[in-house]
Design brief:
The complex is a heterodimer. Chain A is mostly beta strands. Helices cover about 0% and strands about 55% of the residues of chain A. In chain B, a hairpin with a 6-residue loop joins strand 4 and strand 5. The relative contact order of chain B is 0.33. The mean pLDDT of chain B is about 95. Classes of the chains: A mainly beta, B mainly beta.
């Protein structure tokens, strides 16, 4: 079955960078965009950006522009999210998710399914 | 940028009751762009409804989605114990590509 497995929890100091991996299985890796979403403790979901594994093209939420980098290694079917200049507010669970796409009511659309299990990143001095 | 508002923030109901969750967009959106997810504590979100009203594979038919323009609704016809969770609506768009609502928590009364 289609599955995304993320790397383990991380603890980082303010100002450092973190790189989270997301390994895909059960489908052709280059077929679907991978998106990243984060969730601060007790808060809602926040979309960070997308990456096309075939082309390597990316797009980022304005809030994270210049601080987040999405990459991939197609040989191991793995996507990566690197967030730099970490601050305490970046403490959150980070999720990767496959963007499914289809035409609904004759209109192209996308949604996320499935999601990875999440990676907790804690930023603390 | 379109903003999604969900109401109520918390819904207190008993098993067997009907739950009606609202997601409102700050401006008109294409019906096809609206998605609903369920999230339980300590778990990743799970897809429920895409295209505003299409149930995802494996989702029970007690879950239904409806709405258009700016007002969308997720209805759970009869709450089962496993349905108590947080529900998020999501919008697919151009800039930003995806936006989430703040969520509605459905809790046991």
């Amino acid at each position: 079955q289609v599955q995304l497995v993320q790397s383990g929890a991380e603890v980082k100091k303010p100002g450092a960078s973190v790189k989270v991996s997301c390994k895909a299985s059960g489908y052709t890796f280059i077929s679907y965009d991978i998106n990243w979403v984060r969730q601060a403790p007790g808060q809602g979901l926040e979309w960070m950006g997308w990456m096309n594994p075939y082309s390597g093209n990316t797009g980022y939420a304005q809030k994270f522009q210049g601080r987040v980098t999405l990459t991939r290694n197609t040989s191991v079917s793995t996507a990566y999210m690197e967030l730099s200049s970490l601050r305490s507010e970046d403490t959150a669970v980070y999720y990767c998710a496959i963007a499914r796409r289809d035409t609904v009511l004759m209109v192209y659309t996308e949604w996320f399914d499935p999601w990875g299990q999440g990676t907790l990143v804690t930023v603390s001095s | 940028e379109i903003v999604l508002t969900q109401s109520p923030g918390t819904l207190s109901l008993s098993p067997g009751e009907r739950a009606t969750l609202s997601c409102r967009a700050s401006q008109s959106v294409r019906t096809s762009y609206l998605t609903w997810y369920q999230q339980k504590p300590g778990q990743a979100p799970r897809l429920l409804i895409y295209g505003a009203s299409s149930r995802a594979t494996g989702i029970p038919d007690r879950f239904s989605g409806s709405g258009s323009v700016t007002d969308f609704t997720l209805t759970i016809s009869r709450l089962e114990p496993e349905d108590f969770a947080v529900y998020y609506c999501q919008l697919y768009g151009s800039s930003p590509r995806f936006t989430f609502g703040p969520g509605t928590k459905v809790e046991i009364k």
